Automatic annotation (TrEMBL), chains A, B, C:
Residues 6-80, 92-165 form the Glycine transporter domain. Keywords: Cell membrane, Membrane, Transmembrane, Transmembrane helix. This is Trimeric intracellular cation channel family protein. The chain crosses the membrane at residues 6-23, 30-51, 57-78, 118-137, 149-169, 175-194. Belongs to the UPF0126 family. InterPro entries: Gly_transporter (IPR005115). GO terms for cellular component: plasma membrane. PANTHER family: INNER MEMBRANE PROTEIN, UPF0126 INNER MEMBRANE PROTEIN YADS-RELATED.
Length: 200, 200, 200
């Protein structure tokens, strides 16, 4: 639990950075960029909580999420040049982030008594909706609808996590294996430029 | 009830197809297209349920909606050419779909004790919001804000349904009459190119 | 309370007008424009209510908000020319509107037991999200992410309101002082073309 929670906060922090970077590209001011950072970081979990009726949503009653986001602002500005060069690092953190959000989203859905198929859906929703809202607010077609394997990695990871937990695997070990799987799928997809076939 | 439920699922199925077709036009991949299909099909009912506090929302606890959407994917791909030629058929199903969603949305709102004016609003919300979210995700100004009579047909149908049910009409008959009315308004609006005056 | 409620309705009315005007610029029809008016006027409060779990949301159980919005339609059409010339008047009402929504949003959040930092966030959300949704539906990057000090005025006002109420100031006086502060910040920002530095 503590491991998952820590990683959840890291995911929040890293997603906030990805929001700030897109906002900078769109020449937004500091306030607008902070809003984008917030919705990117907590958007997925918020939609999940609304859909399953877990209100007030998590970040309203737990201040740590807000702190993680606020911390991301100076870090992004100070390490700006470093972050640009570390595009690879961002990619790594982002991929870890979606993996963690997939898992924590599923766990929360199960704790509310949802069926496995819906818990898996909620895992994917938690991982990808933040980025979708970020892109809509920036007036772009959400990247997950166009780019390389992204949400699909979450979906595969969520199925994997469910099967392993049904098989009675130790939860912490399952966290690590699932995170590794989602991370590996993303790396391989990028390296070999894999993508899902377009419809039609 | 059983009639309404069956028609509700048909509406879900048909709306999913309309989402898949727009996604194909936007050259999305299969996963992205499936997401668009989902939000088109369940978006309206989801927003209605969130607003009236009926959480978890309907499709989370009832797997049939998900099945209807998943079925739409192979059907759209296999009958692709057929569907393009059957644009008229899609239009027919879509028009039936909004009629059914208007009615089922109102019935749900009434069952939560809403006032008539709000129940009518929730009927229109149920029918049209899915398409609005679909268009936003595809980065277009929602069609209902530009095109021929669409949401207005739902609004007129909702009023008609309310008046008839106040007059004590048999519910099943009312379903059929209201569906026919909304359907007819749409057909006539298309045939004679009717539209609502623009503002200003 | 009565003062706040009356001003809340005025804010709803004025925001509806701002939605109608943008819809007219986008050449929407009367129905689409009315929908834009609704979401502009009640969007912020709706998102706030969903996040804190205050469902059904306020305007579903209180018909006065709907009446305020419906009234805005003929007023905008009849006084069209007058409103264009009175751009300054709209600006004034809009600025009063965000001030009032900031305060009423905070008060509602406090009444649901939220922490001060979250109540302040909910105040800003109530004030600005309606305009954000309006801009997304019209396929524009939300103005608050680009323009002069707007949401920041709400944030400063919300902090001010909180500090003064902690100091035991009379509530009605606090309403007036906070509204004046937010209003003044906006006027000064426009007059001297102040803006927040862009990120990067």
């Amino acid at each position: 639990m503590n491991l998952l929670y820590a990683l959840d906060l890291i995911g929040t922090f890293v997603f906030a950075i990805s929001g700030l970077r897109l906002a900078a590209k769109k020449e937004m001011d500091l306030f607008g960029a902070s809003v984008i950072a917030c919705v990117t970081a907590v958007g997925g979990g918020t939609v999940r909580d609304l859909l399953i009726g877990a209100t007030p949503v998590a970040w309203i009653t737990n201040v740590h999420y807000g702190v993680a986001i606020i911390l991301a602002v100076p870090v992004t500005i100070i390490f700006r040049k470093y972050i640009v060069e570390l595009k690879r690092t961002i990619f790594i953190f982002d991929s870890i982030g979606i993996a963690l959000f997939t898992i924590s989203g599923m766990e929360k859905a199960f704790s509310y008594g949802l069926s496995p198929s819906m818990a898996i859906s909620m895992g994917v929703v938690s991982a990808v909706i933040g980025g979708v809202i970020r892109d809509i607010l920036c007036n772009e077609i959400p990247l997950i609808f166009r780019k390389e394997i992204y949400a699909t990695a979450c979906l595969i990871g969520a199925l994997f996590f469910f099967v392993l937990s049904k098989m009675g695997l130790n939860t912490d070990l399952n966290y690590i294996l699932t995170t590794s799987l989602i991370f590996s799928i993303r790396v391989i997809a990028i390296k070999y430029n894999l993508s899902i076939p377009k419809i039609r």
